[in-house]
């Protein structure tokens, strides 16, 4: 690609800016033409008349040519460009939620909608081309978009732009991509207790950097702390960078509890925790398991107890489902009674089979009317469908009969010129996600085709099929079937039923003036308002990362769509045991299905708690717009990491001679609930001839020395000074005892400190080399006479001298335990007042002297007689002085 440039002048300013034209190399096939224009002030980029306040762009032009003009601008983003696009992954919903700032106007026109571009990173997220393929675009009306097509094992990039009704597009927003996550094949499964099972799969969303371990933990949501309602196989999944995209199967197996559980079911939550390979921060992923009970009352639920069909092929339907989990397969055989041996209707199928894994799923039954060519009394016949049930523990269950009304089509000829429509039912009851039926038939022969348009007064509540019926002069007296289906709205509606109406608009064939009666439809609700908490119980440690309490995330979401805003207040019954954040969760009818993450964190109290743990409960109070939900709690156990004790810095002290001193520190190991008095008591029966001091207070002899620790200063170390007043050797213990109203420290004894009186060591200093030239280091060594000491000996020294580079000063040297000699850090010398050798061959010299300062912990001849290094002027003697 070769760039060319030429001058350009703004019509509204005095400053010249360059115009850069990019031209593709000959033979290239429509490459991306990219240029970077930089300036010292904000500017905009104009591409073919469209302004972009940005310092880069990706642009493909049909003619392989793009003209870029740089000019002063705001730098705040192109006009109409959506800002702050974010993508959040919800693995349990297999969805990605996009949000961005609303754009109100584009090119002086209101924004009508947005285009969301979806692509696969290659390798990173880039802006889409100006005209991407339509298959990559989704049209949305508001500044929020839920992508429910998350691809297994693949990250996704998103960008959005605003569009107005004249068809103008804004510039694409900056891209946002998905995060690494665990993808489950489903968010919920149902199993029967007593070895019922269901399978699901887990897979990674993108290739990991290393092996990934996924641990599965099951907890009971309804009864925290009780035995698990399910078992898992396996409990641990492992993915590698080679097989990360291959789903791994998990089997969930129901566990029998021999208890008649409320609502004939229990709920378990399976938490999936990933670690390694860059997946340690993957969002929490959970699966909800419904364990159906086999210990409660068993029965059969029918969607209808009466069905009306037309003879000669008219159809109706109803459904059956079991109300309790069976112990094995359950068969229901269906039979239809006859009238004097003549059948009036048939059923399909004649046998239903329910298994332990699908027992609660309704199964449909179709009823078909049979023609008899007889004008029946009352223009109808009535028969009964019986149900014989067996197997799976259901042998003693009685299933109600279903009454079937077969509408006659063999009556006397209708009165001429009296058109009308007969509706078989005036009202029906259908469940959400269920169906019911009725029939329509004309009362008299039409002059031509009659069309009856069917419509629901509330299609969001119930739908009708077909949308119209056609009666002709040949079939006008044959009833036609209408099916009404309840719509699942995911809302726990007030009351058990909601009502709507099916209208019939009649036209044609001389029936234009006919008014057909409507059918009242009652839709029974199948939702129950509530919240779903992904965790029933959690164990936390008092100390986690960076010394803070251990934290764990779980999710909260609504079970059904609310009518308005719902607030869930999350609170800890004991904030001193565990805290929660955030404490208020807000759900609306637009985002009720999106889980909110709550973090519960253990609190480190530094107290040695009874039984080694503390417990509390996290509650979730639901309020708002009539949304009544049963309370859900999370049981929190915080494991204690504190134990009572006295922390003593030294186990043994050495006192070398009379008046020798040594120190150690003491503090408590845990925070007490009351003041604690620590007594230090010398052991033995004779006078120990020891001095024990702290904070200016000293005791001697066998008198116990007391220190007081409070709940405020328990972990501040106190220094204890020990002074020897004896010239004799030997050892004796220092006992440590505590008294307090805190049970952890009441009348308890702790570790001893052994005091050993040893001989007073003798220290000697020696010059390593002497003389030295001024400017060189003066080196000394310190040694101990006899055997090495079993403890570190601190020796105080003073250095003086006319040729010392520094002022005279004191310093300390440590002779480590087990060593007899240590080298003193080098001491720098200087010329100072030294004179160079003269013709008389006289050499001027200075010195550096090292003294041992007096101390009762040692003795030394160098207290009065220092070790000395002689220092000479560095200039050599004149040649005449050489021998």
Written overview of the protein:
- This protein has 883 residues and is mainly beta.
- It has eight domains: 2-72, no CATH class; 86-177, Immunoglobulins (Immunoglobulin-like); 182-292, Sandwich (Immunoglobulin-like); 297-409, Sandwich (Immunoglobulin-like), CATH 2.60.40.2030; 413-492 and 507-524, CalX-beta domain (Immunoglobulin-like); 531-633, Immunoglobulin-like (Sandwich), CATH 2.60.40; 646-758, Immunoglobulin-like (Sandwich); 762-872, Immunoglobulin-like (Sandwich), CATH 2.60.40.2030.
- Helices cover 0% and strands 48% of the residues.
- It has no helices and 74 strands.
- The strands form 18 sheets. Strands 1-2-7-4-5 form a five-stranded antiparallel sheet, with no helix packed on it.
- The two termini are 85 Å apart.
- Which class best fits the helix and strand makeup? mainly beta
Instruction: Determine the mean pLDDT.
Output: 79
State the helix count: 0
CATH architecture of the largest domain: Sandwich
Shape by Cα distribution: elongated
How many DSSP-defined strands? 74
The major pleated sheet works out as: 5 strands, antiparallel
CATH superfamily of the largest domain: CalX-beta domain
Cα gyration radius (Å): 46 Å
- Fraction of helical residues: under 10%
The rounded distance between the terminal residues' Cα atoms is 85 Å
């Amino acid at each position: 690609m070769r760039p060319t440039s030429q001058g350009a002048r703004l019509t509204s300013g005095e400053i010249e800016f360059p115009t850069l034209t990019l031209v593709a190399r000959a033979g290239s096939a429509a490459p991306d033409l990219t240029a970077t224009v930089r300036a010292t002030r904000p500017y905009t980029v104009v591409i073919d008349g469209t302004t972009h306040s940005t310092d880069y762009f990706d642009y493909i032009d049909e003619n392989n040519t793009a003209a870029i003009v740089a000019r002063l601008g705001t730098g705040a983003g192109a006009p109409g460009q959506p800002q702050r696009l974010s993508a959040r992954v919800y693995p349990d919903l297999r969805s990605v939620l996009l949000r961005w700032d609303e754009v109100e106007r584009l090119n002086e026109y209101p924004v009508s909608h947005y285009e969301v571009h979806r692509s696969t990173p290659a390798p990173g997220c880039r802006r889409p081309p100006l005209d991407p393929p339509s298959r990559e675009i989704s049209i949305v009306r508001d500044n929020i978009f839920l992508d429910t097509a998350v691809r297994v094992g693949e990250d996704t990039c998103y960008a959005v732009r605003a569009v107005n009704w004249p068809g103008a597009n804004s510039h694409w927003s900056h891209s946002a991509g998905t995060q690494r996550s665990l993808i489950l094949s489903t968010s919920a499964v149902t199993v029967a207790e007593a070895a019922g099972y269901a399978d699901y799969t887990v897979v990674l969303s993108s290739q990991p950097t290393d092996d990934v371990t996924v641990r599965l933990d099951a907890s009971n949501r309804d009864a925290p702390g009780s035995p698990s309602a399910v078992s898992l196989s396996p409990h641990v999944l492992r993915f590698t960078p080679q097989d990360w995209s291959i789903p791994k199967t998990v089997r969930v197996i129901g566990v029998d509890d021999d208890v008649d559980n409320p609502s004939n079911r229990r709920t378990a939550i399976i938490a999936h925790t990933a670690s390694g390979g860059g997946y340690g921060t993957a969002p929490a992923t959970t699966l909800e398991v419904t364990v159906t009970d086999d210990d409660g009352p068993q029965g059969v639920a029918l969607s209808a107890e009466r069905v009306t069909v037309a003879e000669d092929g008219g159809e109706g339907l109803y459904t059956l489902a079991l109300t309790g989990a069976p112990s094995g397969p359950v068969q229901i055989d269906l039979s239809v009674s006859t009238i004097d041996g003549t059948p009036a209707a048939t059923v399909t199928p004649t046998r239903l089979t329910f298994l332990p894994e699908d027992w609660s799923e309704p199964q449909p039954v179709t009823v078909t009317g049979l023609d008899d060519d007889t004008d029946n009394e009352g223009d109808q016949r009535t028969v009964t469908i019986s149900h014989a049930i067996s197997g799976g523990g259901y042998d003693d269950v009685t299933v109600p009969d279903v009454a079937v009304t077969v509408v006659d089509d063999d009556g006397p000829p209708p009165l001429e010129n009296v058109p009308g429509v007969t509706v078989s039912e005036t009202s029906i009851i259908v469940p959400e996600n269920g169906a019911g039926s009725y029939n329509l038939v004309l009362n008299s022969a039409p002059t031509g085709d009659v069309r009856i348009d069917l419509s629901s007064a509330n299609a969001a509540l119930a739908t009708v099929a077909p949308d119209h019926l056609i009666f002709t002069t040949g079939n006008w007296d044959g009833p036609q079937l209408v099916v009404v289906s309840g719509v699942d709205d995911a809302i726990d509606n007030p009351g058990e039923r909601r009502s709507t109406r099916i209208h019939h608009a009649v036209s044609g064939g001389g029936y234009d003036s006919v008014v057909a009666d409507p059918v009242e439809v009652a839709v029974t609700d199948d939702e129950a308002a509530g919240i779903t908490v992904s965790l029933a119980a959690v164990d936390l440690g008092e100390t986690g990362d960076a010394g803070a309490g251990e934290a764990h995330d779980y999710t909260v979401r609504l079970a059904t769509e609310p009518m308005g805003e719902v607030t869930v207040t999350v609170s800890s019954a004991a904030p001193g045991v565990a805290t929660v954040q955030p404490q208020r969760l807000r759900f609306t009818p637009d985002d009720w299905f999106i889980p909110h993450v709550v973090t519960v964190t253990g609190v480190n109290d530094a107290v040695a708690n009874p039984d080694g743990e503390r417990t509390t409960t996290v509650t979730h109070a639901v309020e708002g717009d009539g949304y009544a939900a049963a309370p859900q709690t999370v049981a929190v156990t915080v494991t204690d990491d504190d134990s009572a004790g006295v922390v003593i810095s030294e186990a043994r002290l050495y006192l070398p001679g009379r008046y020798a001193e040594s120190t150690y520190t003491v503090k408590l190991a845990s925070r007490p609930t009351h003041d604690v008095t620590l007594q230090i008591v010398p052991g033995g029966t004779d006078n120990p001839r020891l001095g024990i001091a702290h904070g200016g207070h000293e005791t001697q002899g066998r008198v116990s020395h007391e220190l007081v620790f409070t709940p405020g200063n328990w972990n501040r170390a106190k220094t204890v000074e020990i002074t020897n007043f004896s010239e004799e050797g030997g050892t004796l213990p220092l006992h440590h005892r505590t008294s307090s109203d805190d049970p952890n420290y009441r009348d308890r004894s702790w570790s001893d400190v052994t005091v050993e009186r040893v001989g007073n060591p003798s220290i000697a200093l020696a010059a390593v080399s002497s003389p030295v030239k001024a400017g060189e280091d003066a080196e000394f060594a310190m040694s101990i006479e006899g055997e090495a000491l079993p403890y570190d000996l601190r020796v105080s020294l003073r250095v003086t001298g006319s040729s010392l580079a520094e002022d005279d000063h004191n310093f300390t040297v440590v002779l480590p335990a087990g060593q007899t000699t240590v080298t003193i850090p080098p001491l720098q010398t200087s010329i100072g007042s030294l004179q160079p050798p003269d013709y008389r061959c006289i050499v001027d010299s200075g010195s550096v002297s090292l003294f041992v300062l007096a101390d009762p912990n040692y003795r030394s001849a160098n207290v009065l007689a220092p070790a000395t290094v002689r220092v000479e002027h560095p200039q050599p003697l004149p040649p005449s002085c050489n021998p």
